[in-house]
Each structure stands twice: as C-alpha cells, then as structure tokens.
Specification:
Blueprint lengths: L1 H4 L6 E4 L6 H31 L6 H18 L2 H8 L5 E3 H34 L4 H4 L2 H27 L8 E2 L6 H5 L7 H35 L3 H29 L8 H25 L2 H18 L1
Main location: membrane
Membrane topology: Multi-pass membrane protein
Keywords: Cell membrane, G-protein coupled receptor, Membrane, Olfaction, Receptor, Sensory transduction, Transducer, Transmembrane, Transmembrane helix
C-alpha cells in the first residue's frame, strides 16, 4: 500500500454516459426527461389514488403504494444526474456524490426485491388460503413486512457502499456508464477488492437471492392452488389477481439478472448500457402502468376521482 499511496487519490469520477455525440445527447435529453416525468406522475398519482379510495385500502394496494414510492426514489437517484450530464461536455461526479447515488439506488433496488417477495406471499395467501386471508394479512403484519423490506435494503446498501468506497482509488477514474455502478467502480480500485467482492456476494445472496427464492416458492404454491380449482372461470380469476405482479417480477429479475449475472465477455459496454437503461430508467415507469392498465379496481377508483374533480370544477 505504501507504493500505492505515492499516487494521487481519486476525488472525482468521470461518467461516460450513454453517448459522447453532442447531437445525440440533445435528442436523448427530452426523451428521458419525458420518461422521468411520466415515472414521477404515474407513481405519485398511484400513491395518491390508493390513499384517497377506501376500496383500495387492502394489503395488495398497501404494498403497491410503497413499491411506487421505491420507484420514485430509485428513478430520482439516477435520472436527474443523467439529464444534467446530457447538457455537459465533461460528465464529472465527486467521490461523495457517487457514493451517495449508489447508496440510494442500491437501497431502493434491494428493498424492491424484498417488497416483491412480500407481495408474492400476499398473493399466495389470497389465492391459496382465501378464507384465512384477513386473519393472516393483518395491517400490523403488512407494516412489519414493509419495514423489513426497507430495513433490509438499507443495511445491505450500507454494507455494500462502505465496502466499495473504503477502497483506495488512485488510477483510472472513468466509469463506462451513466451512473455509479458497484461492479465497475470496484474494478477501478488500486487496493485488494476481495473483501468488497465477498460483501457483495453475501448481500446479493442474503437479500437478493433469498427474496427471489421466496417469490419463486410463493408462485409455485400459487400455481398448485390454481390447478386445484375445478372451474375455468375460477382459475382465470385467480390468475388475474397475480398477473400484474408476475409481469413486474419477470421484468425486474429478468433485466437485473442480465445486467449482473451474465459474464462481461458475453456483452459489450453498449449492451451493458442498454440493459442498464431498461433496468434503471424504464422499469420504474413500467411498474405503475402495468398495475393500472390491467387492474379494474384502479380504473374504477380513477373514474371516481375524475367524477369528483369534474363535479367540483363545475
């Protein structure tokens, strides 16, 4: 380490962004600004709608409101920086700002893994044990599950952020992406990253993999419960209650596993950026759309709110 300390410590990172072509950046700016605004409006609108309509005061929509809040925070951890970088020639980010961005984004990502697992368990109880649903999914249990999801995400993100940013950085400071990603940051370190990589593995195992396992097991039991239903209409109705959540889970884990589990030799930096854009930017926008477009209760609640507003303005 003595030889390493002779070098200047890195205090700034350079984000390469999505493209180095100025004309393309000016085209991408309004597109991603629109996506970010849609993300904020849809998620915030869904939260307000759930709070306003008493028919939506159920465990499923309780979890959904916190999922929307996660998506707002997750998108806000990267989108404003990315949008401002579109208008800059040199995309610099300080060491502290990079650590903060990663901490918030990782916290929201890990919490979403846990929350999706809680929502999968909720759907299993609703379909597999409908007569006991109100007894099992009590408000206190739902609150504890949300607190556990946020708490697990916070601790996991804290461990990862400390493990990554306590390393010594003295060489290259170029991050080939539009946000601070731990795998790319650790590769820039001048010190031994083995402990940080071990912490990354443990957090991904205990938080990410276990949440994924709970989700898979819940849907296994859901599938078994649906197969026991004799009528076709009953089976279709049971499947529809979890179709939106299943779509969100598939998109979330499908893209995240593609980004972080596939060997880097299997895809280029451009492919990494495309996958990262979908994972970080598009998913927070798609989640509320998926739940809204396929959900009759949300549509009915929205119609009621529109009627109230039109009646109030008249």
């Amino acid at each position: 380490m003595e030889g390493e300390r002779n070098h200047t410590s890195v205090v700034m990172f350079v984000l390469l962004g999505l493209s180095d072509e100025k004309e393309l950046q000016l085209i991408l700016f309004p597109i991603f600004l629109g996506i970010y605004l849609v993300t904020l409006i849809w998620n915030l609108g869904l939260i307000i709608l759930i709070r306003m309509d008493s028919h939506l005061h159920t465990p499923m929509y309780f979890f959904l409101s916190f999922l929307s809040f996660l998506d707002i925070c997750y998108s806000s951890s990267t989108s404003p920086r990315m949008l401002s970088d579109f208008l800059r020639d040199v995309k610099m980010i300080s060491f502290i700002a990079c650590a903060t961005q990663y901490f918030v984004g990782c916290w929201m990502g890990l919490a979403e893994c846990c929350l999706l697992a809680a929502m999968a368990y909720d759907r299993y109880v609703a379909i597999g044990r409908p007569l006991q649903y109100s007894v099992v999914m009590t408000p206190s249990l739902c609150q504890k599950m949300v607190a556990g999801a946020y708490g697990s995400g916070f601790l996991g993100s804290l461990f990862l952020t400390v493990a990554c940013f306590h390393l010594y950085y003295c060489g290259s400071n170029i991050i080939p992406n539009f946000f601070c990603d731990i795998t790319q940051i650790i590769s820039l370190s001048c010190s031994d990253p083995s402990i940080s990589q071990m912490v990354l593995f443990l957090v991904c195992t205990f938080v990410g993999f276990n949440s994924f396992l709970v989700t898979i097991l819940s849907y296994g039991f859901i599938a078994a419960s649906i197969l026991k239903i004799s009528s076709v209409k009953g089976s279709a109705k049971a499947f529809n209650t979890c179709a939106s959540h299943l779509a969100v889970v598939t998109i979330f884990y499908g893209t995240s596993l593609s980004v972080y589990l596939l060997p880097s030799s299997n895809h280029s930096n451009k492919q990494d950026k495309v996958l990262s854009v979908f994972y970080v930017i598009f998913i927070p926008m798609l989640n509320p759309l998926i739940y809204s477009l396929r959900n009759k209760e949300i549509k009915e609640a929205l119609k009621k709110v529109i009627k109230r507003l039109t009646h109030f303005t008249q």
